[in-house]
Structures are given as structure tokens and as C-alpha cells.
Design goal:
Layout: E1 6-11, E2 20-25, E3 33-43, H1 45-51, E4 69-77, E5 89-93, E6 107-111, E7 115-117, H2 124-129, H3 131-144, E8 152-156, H4 161-172, E9 176-181, H5 186-191, E10 195-198, H6 204-212, E11 219-222, H7 227-235, E12 242-245, H8 255-258, E13 263-266, H9 271-275, H10 279-294, E14 302-308, H11 312-321, E15 327-331
Parallel strand pairs: 8-9, 8-11, 9-10, 11-12, 12-13, 14-15
Antiparallel strand pairs: 1-2, 3-4, 3-6, 3-15, 4-5, 5-7
Helix pairs in contact: 3-4, 3-10
């Protein structure tokens, strides 16, 4: 018989050391929390950076249970929680950084503000892959850039995790969407309803001229960073274009943006988990995700490989090697 006071979890005890699967104390739902029996845990590139000790911005506290995204079933609710009850299927971006327990465990005590009810037409694995990328795309397109009908939106990295969700959200709000990628990704990008642009063969001037008559795009969403962010500044619409980036690392010249009378903002999706502030905003965004998924306007591309708690390191390796064909998911239950 299993011990009701313990659970299995994958633990990072030291940077650049193997992850350890072991028994740990099972959490309980405190005030404002929901105890979730985890069914699946989404894997993100940030997880590999945390393990390598290259993610100071995640404020990791060792030993750590990683896993930022999760989907599962409510086991119990703590004092003061409304809107959830035992048996509910839920999902969200709920931990794995800043000393907050992640989803690579059988159970997690989660701030109820971070959760939403899982879409009825999504599996647990699909739902676990969605939160971080959806929240990032939503914050960039809606909270920062105010995407709307008739706008021309350019998404850099349109076949990537955040990128393919950004394409779908922009289209759901009536935008005319274009997305960069490699020639091999054209079918994926077009499958989500965007016009594909091969970044290896087209210059910024080329596609700005072809698709906007030289005026530039209303919104440019950069999910790649580096030189791509610099290219984004040159692609923004004259007088009022807006560039959003989820990867604003490095040093960048803002003059090309200023010369177009355009603006810039960044997205730091981890901030509510780190600061403890505005967590309810993430729960609200996940409710919007459920609405769009159930309406058939957003779906998630996941890799078919079914990882488990016993081989999480293999999932991390697939991200590092670039062999993942979509978002990776670890099945927990």
C-alpha cells in the first residue's frame, strides 16, 4: 500500500548533476491552494537551462522539483478556495522556479489563482504542454500589443512553441498573420493559417515590401531573440508599429525602431511566480486558453514521445539536441 504522506518526485539537488527520482513529503493544500494529483508535466527549454545552472532569472532554490506547466485532477482544496472542487480537471503554469514546487511529482499544492479548468477537448498531455507558451503569446499580443482585427502581425519563429500559439491567437482575434521559419517548417506554419516566410532566403526589406507595401507590420512578435530582434525593429510599421519580444537578451540598438516611430515591450512570463504578485492574471489567461481551445481556434503541437518521471533526462536531452517535434510532455499518472 502506498504511503499517503509521501510521493515520488524528480529532484534537482545540484546544478549539472543528474536528476534524482525519489520519495519526498507529499504536500497539503494550504490557504488559497489546491492539491492537484498531477497527470502530466510540460517540458520547456528553461528546464534544461535551470539544470545547467544557466537560468539565474528563474531564482531557483535547491533542492528543486522542476516542471513549470502541469495538468491534473483536484484532490483537495484549501481554506478560502472557490471555483474548484475535488475531481475537477485543471491546468496551469504553476511552479518549478523560485522555490515553488513544480509538476515533476505525483502531487502539487498549487496557488488556485494560477489554475483554470482544462479544456474538455484536450488530453491531459496536450493541456500540460500549453500554459507557458500560451501565457507568453497572450501577454505579448493582447496585454502589450493589443492585437485586433485587420492588423498585420509578423511572428518570428512561427513553428516554435510560443510561435505557433501566437499565430493562432492572432488569427483568432482577426489579424492577418505572417510567420518566419525554415523551408522545412512551411507546412507547419501554413497549417496554422499564417503566410510562411523563409528567413534564410528572404531579407527584411523583401518581405516588408511584399506584404506591407513597405509600411511595416502593426505587430512584430519575436520569439527567437538575438539578430532576429534587431530584424524585428526594421519590420515594424512606420508610426505606431509595436515590437514584442519574449527573448530580449543581449545588447540591441533601438535607433532602427525609433526611426520608424515604433515602440517595444518585453514579456517576462515568470514574474508572477517569482514575485507572488498578479498571479490571478495567469489564471484568467488560462481561462481564455480554455475558451479558445474549446472553440477550435487553438491547438498545441506536441511530440509523440511519452516520457515518464523515470526518464525526464531523456526529454531534456531531446530539447538540448533539437530533436523534439513539438512540445515535450512527461506523463506522471
Amino acid at each position: 500500500m502506498s504511503n499517503p504522506t509521501t510521493m515520488q518526485a524528480v529532484v534537482l539537488t545540484a546544478y549539472n548533476e543528474p536528476l534524482v527520482l525519489r520519495d519526498v513529503a507529499r504536500p497539503v493544500a494550504g490557504p488559497g491552494q489546491v492539491l492537484v494529483r498531477v497527470a502530466a508535466s510540460g517540458v520547456n527549454p528553461l528546464d534544461t537551462k535551470i539544470v545547467a545552472g544557466k537560468a539565474d532569472h528563474a531564482h531557483t532554490v535547491l533542492p528543486a522539483i522542476l516542471g513549470i506547466d502541469m495538468a491534473g485532477v483536484v484532490e483537495a482544496v484549501g481554506p478560502g478556495v472557490e471555483g474548484f472542487r475535488p475531481g475537477d480537471e485543471v491546468y496551469g503554469m504553476t511552479g518549478g522556479i523560485a522555490g515553488v514546487q513544480g509538476s515533476l511529482a505525483q502531487y502539487a499544492a498549487v496557488d488556485a489563482d494560477l489554475l483554470a479548468h482544462k479544456p474538455r477537448n484536450m488530453s491531459m498531455r496536450e493541456a500540460a504542454a500549453l500554459p507557458l507558451v500560451f501565457i507568453t503569446a497572450w501577454e505579448g499580443l493582447l496585454d502589450r500589443a493589443k492585437v485586433g482585427a485587420g492588423m498585420k502581425v509578423l511572428v518570428h519563429g512561427g513553428a516554435g512553441g510560443v510561435g505557433h500559439i501566437a499565430v493562432q491567437i492572432a488569427r483568432a482575434f482577426g489579424a492577418d498573420v505572417y510567420a518566419t521559419g525554415s523551408a522545412s517548417q512551411r507546412e507547419i506554419i501554413e497549417g496554422y493559417g499564417a503566410t510562411a516566410i523563409d528567413y534564410r532566403t528572404r531579407t527584411v526589406d523583401d518581405y516588408v515590401a511584399q506584404y506591407t507595401d513597405g509600411a511595416g507590420f502593426d505587430i512584430v512578435f519575436d520569439t527567437v531573440g538575438g539578430a532576429t530582434l534587431d530584424a524585428s525593429f526594421r519590420a515594424a510599421r512606420l508610426y505606431g508599429g509595436h515590437v514584442v519580444s519574449a527573448l530580449g537578451w543581449g545588447t540591441h540598438a533601438l535607433a532602427p525602431l525609433s526611426f520608424r516611430a515604433a515602440t517595444y515591450s518585453g514579456v517576462f512570463t515568470l514574474l508572477p511566480l517569482i514575485s507572488g504578485k498578479r498571479r490571478a492574471a495567469h489564471g484568467a489567461i488560462m481561462r481564455e486558453a480554455t475558451r479558445l481551445v474549446e472553440a477550435g481556434k487553438v491547438n498545441i503541437r506536441i511530440d509523440p514521445t511519452d516520457y515518464t518521471l523515470a526518464n525526464v533526462a531523456d526529454a531534456h536531452r531531446a530539447i538540448a539536441d533539437g530533436t523534439a517535434a513539438g512540445k515535450l510532455v512527461v506523463s506522471v499518472a
